[in-house]
Design brief:
The complex is a heterodimer. By secondary structure, chain A is of the alpha+beta class. Chain A is built from ten helices and 19 strands. In chain A, strands 4, 5, 6, 7, 8, 9, 10, 11, 12 and 17 form a ten-stranded antiparallel beta sheet that branches. In chain A, strands 1-19-18-3-2 form a five-stranded antiparallel beta sheet. The model of chain B has no long low-confidence stretch (mean pLDDT about 90). The chains are: A alpha+beta, B mainly alpha.
């Protein structure tokens, strides 16, 4: 390929990449395709799409990865194009803007001054030297700093306000790039998982959300207790709370014992964050008063999912229960196997008046309470991109505020000797809010005229 | 006096103000316009008192249910109405064109009417996910931005009406007089831009606070939930608006239509997502 062709191709590519037309197109495309993703149900199985939408649509969905549209090749590509456009536009424009605010044109030509959005000129029959100090002071009342330059007897005064507002747009662009970078860092270096821990148990591994992979946490997390708190006199949950303990090599880590983890109040440890996000009943705990025939009664706790041994070797399990037996409290059905291998059954009532079983039974049982043993569900994530995202968000807010709530205002006052008097040209421009700047400019112009006419009077 | 009575009072004041402004638009009597604005201010203050009292009332209820009054659909639509009226009155302070109220107040009235018809005005305890101080910051910034975008919508409609009536020659004297009350087309166009420029950073704050909150509550700052996605769609549309206007010199009809499109997306973000799409903000319905 011819070198000239290549460079013109690159130049075309560059000007296309930084063009505002491309910005608008990507913004509209991003908006439009995002709509699609909210209408089409996401992350269903291919079979479900087939059943709901038919074969043609399913084919399209598979090709365009519409089942997970926001992570599809073309949506990510669109975001990449958006990022490139932002970066190219910033690289192209920022140097010029930077020059304008750091090295403004201090000695502009007459014609350039006349072409500013705000302009006025008048003549005063007084020498330049006699007025300059007064005019500078008048300008300084509105602008803290006034710069002066001179060339061939002509004097220029320059003042500006809020020049940093010009950077707002570029700070916003940079912020978006940082947020996108944070997203990439998070998706490459982070993961999301879910873990359930039964009260009293410890887990050391985590199942990731995508795929079936298990990863080791590198430490243990024990759930000491889970509780749902309700609003008073209501069945609305107020708070889900797990008490978690972190274990290193099986030992409790000081300061991380029975830490309450609630919705909106996660626990962070070694780069992982644990969020309260689900719960359920793992097992029921039955408490019985057991009276051996001819022996002393004792209390016994039996989980619904386990067999428990009595002192004489009889093993016991709960076969089932009714939460309420004819209005007289709960009842549990028990199965047991005596030490000689003979199976047996018994009922345990909550109500002491109800039958205690056969007289020759080895044990009689009374049900004292039924409690629940909970498991807690924790969303676990590692996202090294989050600090970048927050930095980006902060810059995004500051950038948009600077770009739209503040305005870079510049004024130039040119004093040119004209015979015995002086010709004054006053020009101004603001990068935002031109109308209100126009009013302020007119006032300032009047003040300048008065300040020099006073001196004459 | 309960917050419900105060909010009813505010609705009544807006209703009277609206008809006073309609009469002003028809008869062009300055007094009517001034009275309309006075009633709107009274409504805004009573409305604010109603929201404040509801906040206080929630803390008086048994069972520690106290929270900022932005938690369910009733409360949000009441606050939307307040944000619209606030935006209108701030614009009126600047422009002194009462006729804008003929367009803005019906939207505020629709909000208040919707709130009252929904019949779900009981103060409800917060579900665990909403028990966060981010709730207040997130909701206030989102709804202030809604208010600004609503103003941009109103002046865009006025711009298009004015533009259209200029092109159509024969008009009734009444219509001509009505349109004559509008600010000039350049002013309408400028106000459209200014409203979007004021709303856009606030909307950005709304999205950012939402992301921060989501990160605390769910462990992800962004999960492409329909509400999140639609808030981003609105952001994209207004970002396109600002670029088209500031850097490509779009103005007049083009930006007016773009602002109307942005407002439709805003409304969908607020209402449509909750009514039509499933997602994490479903408690808002």
């Amino acid at each position: 390929m011819n070198f000239g062709n290549l460079s013109s191709l690159l130049a075309n590519l560059w000007s296309g990449l930084r063009s505002l037309k491309l910005s608008l197109l990507t913004l509209f495309f991003l908006a439009g395709s995002s709509v699609l993703g909210t209408i089409l149900p996401q992350k269903l199985s291919i079979a479900e799409y087939h059943q709901r939408l038919g074969p043609v649509a399913t084919h399209l969905i598979r090709f365009l990865q519409l089942d997970d549209m926001y992570h599809s090749w073309w949506f990510v590509g669109l975001l990449g194009l958006f990022a490139l456009n932002l970066a190219a536009c910033t690289v192209h424009r920022l140097p010029g803007v930077w020059r304008q605010i750091t090295r403004p044109n201090l000695t502009p030509s007459d014609r350039w001054l006349q072409n500013r959005p705000q302009f006025c000129e008048w003549r005063v029959a007084k020498s330049l030297e006699a007025m300059e100090h007064r005019l500078t002071e008048t300008l300084r009342r509105r602008f803290s700093h006034v710069r002066r330059d001179t060339k061939e007897g002509t004097v220029w005064l320059f003042a500006q306000k809020q020049p940093w507002a010009r950077l707002g747009a570029y700070v916003t662009h940079l912020a978006i790039l940082i947020i996108l970078l944070g997203g990439v860092v998070g998706s490459k270096g982070g993961f999301q998982g879910y873990v359930t821990i039964v009260e009293g148990h410890t887990v050391e591994r985590l199942r990731l959300n995508d795929g079936q992979k298990d990863v080791s946490l590198g430490f243990g997390v024990r759930c000491d207790r889970f509780a749902v708190e309700y609003y008073a006199d209501s069945d609305r949950p107020k708070e889900f709370r797990s008490l978690l303990t972190i274990l290193e090599d099986g030992r409790e880590v000081p300061g991380l014992v029975k830490v309450p983890v609630r919705v909106n109040h996660p626990l962070r440890y070694r780069g992982l964050t644990f969020y309260q996000s689900g719960y359920g009943v793992d097992a029921h705990l039955f408490r019985f008063r057991v009276k051996p025939r001819g022996g002393d009664p004792f209390e016994l706790e039996v989980p619904s999912d386990r067999m428990v041994s009595l002192p004489d070797g009889t093993s016991l399990a709960v076969a089932g229960y009714l939460p309420d037996f004819e209005g007289r409290g709960p009842v549990a059905g028990l199965q047991f196997v005596s030490p000689d291998g003979r199976p047996g059954r018994a009922m345990a009532f909550y109500d002491p008046d109800l039958g205690a079983g056969r007289a020759d039974a080895p044990y009689t049982f009374r049900l004292l309470s039924i409690d629940q043993r909970w498991y807690t569900g924790l969303q676990v994530s590692r996202d090294p991109g989050v600090p970048l995202v927050w930095l980006g968000c902060l810059l995004l807010v500051l950038g948009t505020l600077a770009a739209f709530y503040f305005s870079h205002q510049c004024v130039w006052l040119q004093l040119k000797p004209d015979g015995s008097g002086t010709c004054l040209r006053f020009a101004g421009q603001a990068h935002r809010h031109g109308e209100s700047f126009g009013k302020r400019f007119a006032n300032l112009c009047r003040d300048l005229q008065q300040s020099v006419s006073e001196e004459l009077s | 006096m309960t917050s419900f009575n105060l909010l009813n009072g505010a609705t009544t004041a807006y209703f009277i103000a609206f008809w006073l402004l309609v009469a002003y638009a028809g008869l062009r009597r300055e007094t009517l316009g001034r009275m309309g604005i006075v009633f709107t201010w009274v409504g805004l203050i009573v409305h604010a008192m109603g929201i404040g009292l509801r906040w206080y009332e929630s803390y008086q209820l048994p069972g520690d249910v106290g929270h900022a009054p932005f938690a369910n659909f009733y409360e949000s639509v009441v606050f939307f109405g307040w944000a619209i009226v606030l935006a209108f009155l701030l614009l009126d302070l600047k422009l002194r064109r009462r006729v804008i109220g003929v367009f803005a107040l019906p939207l505020a009235l629709a909000c208040m009417g919707y709130a009252q018809l929904s019949g779900r005005d009981a103060i409800e305890p917060l579900m665990p996910a909403l028990r966060s101080r981010w709730l207040t910051y997130h909701v206030i910034s989102c709804f202030l931005a809604y208010g600004a975008f609503t103003m941009s919508f109103c002046v865009s409609v006025m711009y298009l009406l004015k533009e259209r009536s200029r092109n159509l020659a024969p008009q009734t004297a009444w219509w001509h007089g009505f349109i004559g009350l509008f600010p000039g087309r350049d002013t309408l166009d400028d106000v459209n831009y200014r409203a979007v420029a004021i709303g856009f950073p606030i909307w950005t704050v709304g999205i950012v606070t939402g992301a921060a909150w989501a990160n605390y509550a769910w462990g992800r700052y962004w999960s492409w939930d329909p509400k999140e996605t639609w808030s981003l769609i609105v952001w994209f549309i207004y970002a396109a608006f600002l670029h088209a206007r500031l850097s490509r010199g779009w103005s007049g009809r083009a930006t007016a239509w773009l602002a109307i499109g942005g407002f439709v997306a805003t409304l969908f973000c607020y209402l449509g997502v909750n009514l039509l799409l499933p997602g994490l903000h479903s408690y808002g319905s």
